[in-house]
Automatic annotation (TrEMBL):
Residues 1-61 form the SH3 domain. CDD domains: BAR_SNX33 (cd07669), SH3_SNX33 (cd11896). One of its GO terms (molecular function) is phosphatidylinositol binding. Residues 66-75, 85-95 have a biased composition (Polar residues). This is SNX33 protein. Pfam families: BAR_3_WASP_bdg, PX, SH3_9. PROSITE patterns: PX, SH3. Keywords: Cell cycle, Cell division, Cytoplasmic vesicle, Endocytosis, Membrane, Mitosis, Protein transport, SH3 domain, Transport. Belongs to the sorting nexin family. SUPFAM superfamilies: PX domain, SH3-domain.
Length: 562
């Protein structure tokens, strides 16, 4: 609930997240709970943003308690347990494999879905909406008389006794740049591990940085979805047979296992576009059409996983594909969930080339890819809508229209039988057969989307997911660029050692190389996938109209002998 407040002191904003306030100005506070000593509200000029909690007092009605005075609680002062967003939240899951009595890993299980990033409300400048709850702020009794202006410690200018100067931290602690831990990595706050068991290499290719290929490439089939039961038939689920080509030994996995793996991938690979799993469905999970659709999309998902040089080598993925022993499955699952090389720490496993890259050139290339991905996302959505509408017409409109045409021909044939002396059976039968032919053609139209449009929509759905990942990944790179520029400016002004600025630039190179490698892999897959999609669609269209043509030619020949 919005509260009225009064500014005790004037405050001048210094970035777009903040707003300026004047002493004695009336304010509107969205929530009296402060975030690291900052409140969110609106000034008398209608501007919305952040200002120091210690600079305002909240006005309360006489019937209520006294106003809340933050002035003795400096913004961001140590010792207060303010809320901070977790950098890499761990996700716990219930159950493992198939034998748990309390296994609630259904296809529709909220405990297994991806944790979503808090969304910004309109006008909050990227900060959480007022409805988000933080630990309660501290109430102080009203004081009278002169109060000195409290010292202001900005969240984006934290100091450290270990370093002479520190590059500013983002004020928005809910941005993916902060929550992913990439900001901490760029600023050198991610501790180096004494021993890193995994390494992912980037090498220079003809089109720039690219992931080093998996030395042991493989593919994996997804087939034979089978309905199974447990607890004496009380619980049902669908299992899929997975057969990796490198071991040629099948394993059986449920959708909940795919969902577990997907969450581990999101948790670990900060700068990689992880393909989205097929959507969940609350009802109709055992209907044949839904099972077939999910199988098709899991096949595409698996193809992208096995083709990715980094994801295909992930230990958790290999465990998912190969483990057949129940006890070993549990051990491997726990090991993956305790993996320390996730989020920002994953960046420590990336080995980059020594070739120099101008950061401005990299930024220009990233901007070009950003514009491309936005345009492609729009065009994929457009084609999805058109194809979906065409499916609807095939199943409904086209079939109905051809049935109407067939019925009309049948009516003509029936009318010709009404006057026997002038009735010609051969003609009547030919017209009647023509009507039946068009009814058959209508059914062929209704069935055709299964052969072409469904496969197109599957590919488009996969790419909608992949493209939706890139804005956040690009935001990580943009944040890293900003830190490099800021550190260099501070170095030029003598407020930071050049060695520290060089360290930030070096770590930014890691993020930059990783993003470019991911961009190149995306383009490589895009060319192959859309070539395959278009070839398949056109071939199926040709075969379809050939079958329609054969039906019509067969009917036409019935008139030749009249």
């Amino acid at each position: 609930m919005a509260l009225k407040a009064r500014a005790l002191y004037s405050f001048q904003s210094e970035n777009k997240e903040e707003i300026s306030i004047q002493e004695n100005e009336e304010l509107v506070i969205f929530s009296e709970n402060s975030l690291d000593g900052w409140l969110q509200g609106q000034n008398s000029r209608g501007e919305t943003g952040l200002f120091p909690a210690s600079y305002v007092e909240i006005l309360r009605s006489r019937s209520g308690s006294n106003y809340t005075d933050y002035s003795s609680s400096p913004a961001g002062s140590p010792g207060h347990d303010f809320y901070t967003a977790p950098t890499n939240p761990s996700i716990s899951y219930q159950g493992s494999f198939e034998d748990d009595d309390d296994d609630d890993w259904d296809d529709w299980d909220d405990a297994c879905t991806v944790v979503e990033e808090p969304r910004s409300a309109p006008g909050t400048n990227g900060h959480p909406s007022p409805s988000l709850q933080y630990p309660a702020a501290y109430d102080h009794h009203q004081h009278t008389g002169y109060r000195p202006k409290p010292a202001l410690e900005r969240q984006d200018s934290m100091s450290s006794s270990k370093r002479g100067s520190v590059v500013g931290r983002n004020l928005n602690r809910f941005s993916c740049f902060v929550r992913s831990g990439v900001e901490a990595f760029i600023l050198g706050d991610v501790p180096l591990m004494s021993k890193i068991a995994e390494a992912y290499c980037i090498e220079m290719g003809s089109r720039g940085p690219q992931w080093k290929p998996n030395p042991h490439p493989f593919i994996c089939s997804v087939e034979d979805p089978t309905k199974q039961t447990k607890f004496k038939g009380i619980k049902s689920y669908i299992s899929y047979k997975l057969t990796p080509s490198n071991i040629n030994s099948p394993v059986y996995r449920r959708y909940k296992h795919f969902d577990w793996l997907y969450n581990r991938l999101l948790h670990k690979f900060t700068v990689i576009s992880v393909p989205h799993l097929p959507e969940k469905q609350a009802t109709g999970r055992f209907e044949e059409d839904f099972i077939e659709k999910r199988k098709r999309r899991l096949i595409l998902w698996m193809d992208h996983m096995t083709s990715h040089p980094v994801l295909s080598q992930y230990e958790g993925f290999q465990h998912f594909l190969c483990c057949r022993d129940e006890k070993q499955w549990k051990l491997g699952k726990r090991r993956a969930e305790k993996d320390e090389m996730v989020g920002a720490s994953f960046l420590l496993t990336i080995q980059i080339p020594t070739e120099h890259q101008d950061l401005q050139d990299v930024e220009d290339r990233v901007d070009a890819f950003k514009a491309f991905s936005k345009k492609m996302d729009d065009s994929v959505l457009q084609l999805t809508n058109v194809a979906s509408e065409l499916v609807r017409k095939h199943v409904g409109g086209f079939r109905k229209e051809f049935q109407k045409l067939g019925n009309a021909f049948q009516a003509i044939s029936h009318s010709f039988h009404m006057d026997p002396p002038y009735s010609l059976d051969a003609l009547n039968n030919a017209i009647s057969h023509t009507g039946k032919t068009y009814e058959t053609v209508g059914e062929m139209f209704a069935e055709q989307p299964k052969n072409d449009l469904f496969l197109m929509l599957d590919t488009l759905s996969l790419y909608q997911g992949l493209l939706s990942n890139f804005p956040d990944i690009i935001h990580l790179q943009k944040g890293a660029f900003a830190k490099v520029k800021e550190s260099q400016r501070m170095s030029d002004e003598g407020r930071m050692d050049q060695e520290e600025a060089d360290g930030i630039r070096k770590r930014c190179r890691v993020v930059g190389f990783a993003l470019q490698a991911e961009m190149n892999h995306f383009h490589e897959r895009r060319v192959a996938d859309f070539k395959k999609m278009m070839q398949s669609y056109l071939k199926q269209q040709i075969m379809f109209y050939q079958r329609v043509s054969q039906q019509l030619e067969k009917t036409l020949r019935m008139y030749d002998n009249l």
